[in-house]
Amino acid sequence: MTEDIFILDSHSGIFVWVGQLVDSKRKLQALTIGEKFLEHDFLLEKLSSKTPIYIVMEGSEPPFFTRFFTWDSAKSLMQGNSFQRKLAIVKHGGAPLLDNTCITWRQVQCT
């Protein structure tokens, strides 16, 4: 997932989660992506255009974001892209490799 952008609609706010490996051009589009999500009303919720949009960077997820999930902070510290992370878990008997330093998600496709 670290190379992707996802949207979480919590009904009281929109969270745009940006993976660490997303290229800089797409990272700059994060707010626009959240605004477009509100504008197009994909879930037919008629959310206000004043609904707050939060940009959440991978590895810096605040508690008001992680409360929507069964959050495993150890997994958020793993190195590599999503495939490499899963492979590391399998190779090491389910124990994630740590870097020493689920509400429905909608994956965003940027062109």
From TrEMBL:
A GO biological process this protein is involved in? actin filament severing
Q: Where is the Gelsolin-like domain?
A: 2-65
Recall the GO molecular function terms of this protein's record: actin filament binding
Residue ranges annotated as transmembrane are none
Tree of life domain: Eukaryota
Query: Which PANTHER family does the annotation name?
Result: VILLIN, VILLIN-4
* Designated name of the protein: Gelsolin-like domain-containing protein
**What lineage does the source organism belong to?**
Eukaryota, Viridiplantae, Streptophyta, Embryophyta, Tracheophyta
